[in-house]
């Protein structure tokens, strides 16, 4: 590596559950640093034995690299955490302890040190609702079905490849929302109206648009040199779709530079689905 | 509320981005407490004005409820954070500051205080790969297509409704992995072999099984009183599928009490897809 290369570290994510919380949060923190890092996931560390093994792995890395590894933990079992705290030569960032203890004081209740969020998911209503939402969103992808459309929490509309499918699935997966989506197609433009099945659900409809240049780029990856992907056709479709969304008074945004997380968050702010109210 | 009811608090999640990190992590922390809470998301707080508005909302809640609201923040802009810190009457849990400052010391580099992880996602290879993985997984759901099957990072097999589809989509959405899935059907059982298209990809195959009682329950929700959902048929299919997985020497797990996060994490540990190596 040249002298100008940013420093490299190994980062461990240790959890008694899946480690997904540790990793999601750790990645957000690490994104604040211009640094190359190697990631090692150590999920399901739920016995002292496994914790000792993790310590050996971390300390071995520390010696080999001559640098402290960064260790994010979301361990809730104090005995297992102690094995790591006592033995580990990495820089320990204890994500739970750091916030749980001050919260115990403020709330004046003890935390239950429960491992993981899912014990037997088949008995959890929230979890079953989430799986049902994923299935619903798949069955209502791309205007496939109008059955039970009124059960939708959100209905997305937009031209083909404007981001409807990944956003619908994300809304289902992350928030347990039933998200349908409908393509806007030349027939709709000719009729100058949204697909008729959608009329009774105006309040749940949200539009996705996209810059024609970007749309043409995305479509060309799938069908190179087609009329479908041509910049002229993309310009026409986007302009017709945006005009229709304005006429129909539905809210919409441009997805061109936005991630599905950002699109989903904006939709939730605008649509405020009842099911998300606590 | 009865005297036995756990205390109720309002919890705010404040972020200059989507707030998804704040909420994911905050929920994991709150799951440690037996407490009912009301959640308020305040995403895209990226100006001092919006921060002042957030402070007013929090302080209003504090007065109305006579209890400190809990406030999780993932603000990276120090000036915006200062507006919250100075004015807010809630209990502030500054998730970034808490870990970023010690990391700056250890790494001897300054954090860049960059807002959000996605600036212009259309230019990010990792992001585009993730969208491509979602599309790939959708197109390779339920054995729909053998095209480009060799591009799969993971191939899931199992009887209908054993959890293949949600797990495939989760692997794509969370990890950017191309996950195909194939149903095991009576034809395969008669032939006593995995679907022929899968033969060259043995190392990427992972099996999902499920307890027949639970399978029958799930199938009955979709097709009540059908042969498909009957306990006899479910027992037969599960037993044939498990025998086949054993014979073929592929790794598998039972999804009965597991969440898609737990299933996905176990699959990653076993399959170790190359694309996940850093």
Automatic annotation (TrEMBL), chains A, B:
Keywords: Kinase, Nucleotide-binding, Pyruvate, Serine/threonine-protein kinase, Transferase
EC number in record: 2.7.11.33, 2.7.4.28
Binding site residues for ADP: 158-165
Catalyses which reaction(s): [pyruvate, water dikinase] + ADP = [pyruvate, water dikinase]-phosphate + AMP + H(+); [pyruvate, water dikinase]-phosphate + phosphate + H(+) = [pyruvate, water dikinase] + diphosphate
InterPro entries, sorted: Kinase-pyrophosphorylase, PSRP
GO molecular function: ADP binding; ATP binding; phosphotransferase activity, phosphate group as acceptor; protein serine/threonine kinase activity
Pfam family, one: Kinase-PPPase
Domain of life: Bacteria
Chain's role: Bifunctional serine/threonine kinase and phosphorylase involved in the regulation of the phosphoenolpyruvate synthase (PEPS) by catalyzing its phosphorylation/dephosphorylation.
NCBIfam families assigned to the protein according to its UniProt record, in alphabetical order: PRK05339.1
Family designation: Belongs to the pyruvate, phosphate/water dikinase regulatory protein family. PSRP subfamily.
Descriptive protein name: Putative phosphoenolpyruvate synthase regulatory protein
UniProt organism field: Rhodoferax koreensis
């Amino acid at each position: 590596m040249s002298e100008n290369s940013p420093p490299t570290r190994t980062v461990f994510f240790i959890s008694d559950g899946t480690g997904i919380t540790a990793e999601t949060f750790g990645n957000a923190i690490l994104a604040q640093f211009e640094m190359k890092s190697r990631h090692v996931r150590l999920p399901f560390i739920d016995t002292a034995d496994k914790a000792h093994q993790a310590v050996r792995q971390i300390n071995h890395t520390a010696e080999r690299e001559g640098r402290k590894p960064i260790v994010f933990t979301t361990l809730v079992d104090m005995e297992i955490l102690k094995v790591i705290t006592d033995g580990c030569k990495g820089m320990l960032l204890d994500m739970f302890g750091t916030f749980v203890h001050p919260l115990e004081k403020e709330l004046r209740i003890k935390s239950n040190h429960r491992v993981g969020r899912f014990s037997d998911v088949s008995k959890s209503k929230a979890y079953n609702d989430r799986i049902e939402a994923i299935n619903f969103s798949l069955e209502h992808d791309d205007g496939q079905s109008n059955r039970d459309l009124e059960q939708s929490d959100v209905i997305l509309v937009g031209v083909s490849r404007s981001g409807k499918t990944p956003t619908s699935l994300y809304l289902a997966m992350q928030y347990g929302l039933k998200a349908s989506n409908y393509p806007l197609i030349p027939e709709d433009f000719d009729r100058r109206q949204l697909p008729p099945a959608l009329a009774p659900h105006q309040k749940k409809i949200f539009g996705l648009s996209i810059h024609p240049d970007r749309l043409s780029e995305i479509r060309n990856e799938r069908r190179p040199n087609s009329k479908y992907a041509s910049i002229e056709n993309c310009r026409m479709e986007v302009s017709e779709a945006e005009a229709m969304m304005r006429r129909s008074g539905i809210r919409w945004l441009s997805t061109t530079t936005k991630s599905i997380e950002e699109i989903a968050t904006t939709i939730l702010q605008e649509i405020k689905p009842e099911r998300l109210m606590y």
